[in-house]
């Protein structure tokens, strides 16, 4: 025989390569790691939207100014008006300052049809009624934005006797015939 003697034969052992891969994560950690970039993208897009269109969404509390308490009698704007007056369903004046309510859009007074004129009157009455109910708080974003007409953009709230918050935008959506404001795009009222 020409080979190695049988006594010197070693048993061939399979050599396995070392495993240097990442440690296996638990299920929820793996899921969070997978969605984290999308969450960040959504947060960044939301912040861009809030800052690009300030009249659309109220700023979160940490980006809002200290509340200014307003108390007074609101009349309609026109001859003989008072210091506080209502222009239409989403705008009022305090002296020389025009204020546009954030998050709502109402029919305009210079209506294109009788239905829009009726809706504009109802919205104006609803705004005047809410403002005249008593003191309320007005806040702005920290950068104090204005719209393209120079109106100050503000969020208005009132604390009810039971401690709950009464937001003007919510009231105008349910009672005042307002719709959501989504920037420059507006549908017709006729």
Could you explain how this protein is built, in words?
- With 190 residues, the chain is of the alpha+beta class.
- The protein contains 3 helices and 10 strands.
- The chain has helices at 27-52, 114-131, 168-174, and strands spanning 68-70, 74-76, 84-88, 91-94, 97-101, 104-105, 136-139, 152-159, 165-167, 179-180.
- The strands form 2 sheets. Strands 1, 2, 3, 4, 5, 7, 8 and 9 form an 8-stranded mixed β-sheet that branches. A two-stranded antiparallel ribbon has the order 6-10.
- A hairpin with a 5-residue loop joins strand 8 (152-159) and strand 9.
- The longest helix has 26 residues, at 27-52.
- The protein is elongated and about 110 Å long.
- It starts with 26 loop residues before the first helix and ends in a 10-residue tail after the last strand.
- 23% of the residues are buried.
Order of helices and strands: HEEEEEEHEEEHE
**Rg from alpha-carbon coordinates:** 31 Å
Shape: elongated
Strand fraction equals 15-25%
Q: Into which percent range does the helicity of residues fall?
A: 25-40%
- Number of DSSP strands? 10
Q: Give the number of helices.
A: 3
Q: Average the pLDDT over all residues and give the rounded result.
A: 81
Structural class: alpha+beta
Low-confidence stretches: none
**Biggest beta sheet attributes:** 8 strands, mixed
N-to-C CA distance = 107 Å
């Amino acid at each position: 025989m020409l080979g190695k003697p049988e006594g010197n034969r070693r048993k061939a052992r399979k050599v396995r390569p070392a495993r240097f891969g990442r440690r296996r994560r638990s299920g929820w950690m793996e899921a969070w790691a997978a969605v984290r970039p999308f969450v960040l993208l959504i947060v960044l897009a939301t912040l861009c939207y809030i800052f690009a269109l300030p009249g659309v969404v109220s700023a979160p509390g940490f980006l809002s100014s200290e509340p200014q308490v307003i108390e007074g009698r609101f009349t309609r704007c026109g001859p003989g008006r008072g210091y506080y007056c209502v222009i239409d369903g989403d705008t009022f004046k305090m002296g020389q300052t025009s204020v546009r309510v954030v998050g709502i859009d109402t029919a305009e007074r210079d209506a294109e049809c009788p239905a829009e004129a009726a809706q504009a009157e109802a919205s104006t009455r609803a705004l005047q009624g809410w403002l005249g109910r008593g003191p309320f708080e007005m806040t702005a974003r920290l950068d104090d934005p204005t719209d393209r007409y120079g109106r100050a953009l503000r969020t208005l709230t009132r604390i009810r006797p039971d401690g709950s918050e009464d937001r003007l935008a919510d009231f105008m959506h349910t009672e005042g015939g307002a719709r959501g404001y989504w920037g420059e795009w507006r549908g017709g009222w006729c």
